[in-house]
Design brief:
alpha+beta, about 425 residues, 11 helices, Peptidoglycan synthesis regulatory factor (PBP3), Domain 2
């Protein structure tokens, strides 16, 4: 919990102590009849610098596990791969589950086309018609290059071109897309590199729109490609093409996806294959099972499909995703005398950890919150603990408006209500720990 929050809670507890002392103080007659107090048990000394009235703190005890902010412990027995570079990523939790030279730039072959498709979609060109140039046809005719067998002068929709680009890796389509969107491939490549910088892909650069060039300048890292795929898959059109095994579109022969994981690997949803002699076999793969999604990227592999499948198996079998607090589901209720309002997390608390790693979360409500209070008012915080260490903290907020208290009660009733509210405040000072 941030220091400011701890100070606020300590000050609130001091105020509550003062309020109770006034409200519960005996009258002079009652004090005369009261027996002498027994000696109070010794209490721990408050830490130096604590505000007056702050509750005593027990001696700190060492916590097991990694310190806050440290990368989570990886699961044992990672798979053996043939790829020179590889990553396994949980994009929902933002956790890297496996890394082999994750940030080292390598040749990426046709996985380049993820960026090509993304820029065309971001340009809003999907419904436009494209005239195929002789240059695009010539690139598609490169020996050994994947081609959609486009014809010079052919009129075809951008939607058809992008479908063939992603599913069949048509190099002629990549050039046709680039020329239409930017007026020429060189101008389009400049946009590709600018977009890579915007996305923070520091190990990524492009020299063409297809990835056909086996040049050092056409490169990326496994981690950068996972990040790029995550951005592209947010577009439903791209996600549809990447996950389709077969499709028929206007102007092209029936398409069969080159990604052999689709239909063969449980939950496979994409993304893009690649190969050149120098780059080796490359694959950006994704799979979803239940509420879990994983990305596997392998570069310069001898068997890209087997490597990616092994990584995905490792992620699904050796890890679990825990979501103890979701903004859509109340985690607690903030109660006043005669009223209560549900409390929700401002954002999800979630983490992906090895199966045996203990996960817990701790909800702490502010002891005093005046009414009326609007929905969205911050009334506490929730911490996520992995192996005893805090790894994330989110605000807790009121999910609905809290009305003003009833002003019509008399003095005795108001005093009683104040006592009850003070006691509720003390109860809120105790964090609520829960296993996840």
């Amino acid at each position: 919990m941030p220091t400011s929050r701890a100070a606020e809670r300590a000050a609130a507890s001091a105020a509550l102590l003062a309020l109770l002392a006034v409200l519960l103080a005996p009258t002079p007659a009652a004090r005369a009849q009261s027996p002498a107090p027994s000696p109070a048990p010794a209490q721990p000394t408050p830490p130096a610098g604590s505000p007056p009235g702050a509750p005593p703190q027990p001696a700190a005890s060492p916590q097991p596990g990694a310190p806050p902010g440290q990368a989570p412990v990886l699961a044992p027995d990672p798979p053996s791969l043939t790829a020179e570079g590889a990553v396994l990523v949980d994009p929902l939790s933002g956790v890297l589950l496996h890394a082999d030279d994750a940030e080292a730039p390598r040749l990426i072959a046709s996985t380049t086309k993820i960026m090509t498709a993304l820029l065309a979609l971001e340009a809003g060109a999907i419904e436009q018609r494209v005239t195929v140039s002789a240059n695009a046809v010539a690139v598609g005719a490169t020996p050994g290059a994947a081609s959609l067998e486009l014809r010079a002068g052919q009129q075809i929709t951008m939607r058809s071109l992008l479908t063939g680009l992603v599913m069949r890796s048509g190099n002629d389509a990549a050039v046709a897309v680039a020329e239409h969107v930017a007026g020429g491939e060189a101008a389009f490549v400049a946009r590709m590199n600018a977009r890579a910088r915007e996305l923070g892909l520091t190990a990524t650069s492009f020299v063409d729109a297809s990835g056909l060039a086996d040049e050092p300048g056409n490169r990326s890292s496994p981690l950068d490609l996972a990040r790029l795929a995550h951005v592209a898959l947010r577009d439903p059109e791209f996600a549809s093409w990447a996950s389709a095994r077969e499709r028929t579109v206007d102007g092209l022969a029936p398409l069969t996806n080159r990604n052999l994981l689709l239909g063969a690997y449980e939950g496979a949803t994409g993304v893009k294959t690649g190969y050149t002699n120098r780059a080796g076999l490359c694959l950006v793969a994704s799979a979803t099972r239940g509420d879990r999604t994983l990305y596997a990227v392998v570069l310069d592999s001898e068997d890209s499909f087997a490597d990616a499948a092994a990584l995905l198996d490792h992620g699904f079998d050796a890890y679990r995703r825990v979501v103890p607090a979701d903004p859509a589901v109340p985690v607690a209720a903030y109660r006043w005398g005669g009223a209560q309002t549900p409390v929700v997390a401002a954002e999800a608390l979630d983490v992906t950890v090895p199966l045996a790693t203990p996960v817990a979360w701790r909800a702490s409500l502010d002891p005093v919150e005046a009414r009326p209070a609007a929905a969205g008012t911050v009334v506490g915080s929730a911490e996520l603990l992995v192996a005893g260490a805090v790894v994330d903290t989110v605000e807790l907020r009121l999910a609905a408006d809290a009305p003003a208290p009833d002003p019509g009660r008399g003095g005795a009733a108001q005093a009683g209500a104040a006592v009850q509210e003070a006691l509720r405040g003390f109860a809120r000072l105790e964090p609520l720990d829960r296993a996840a």
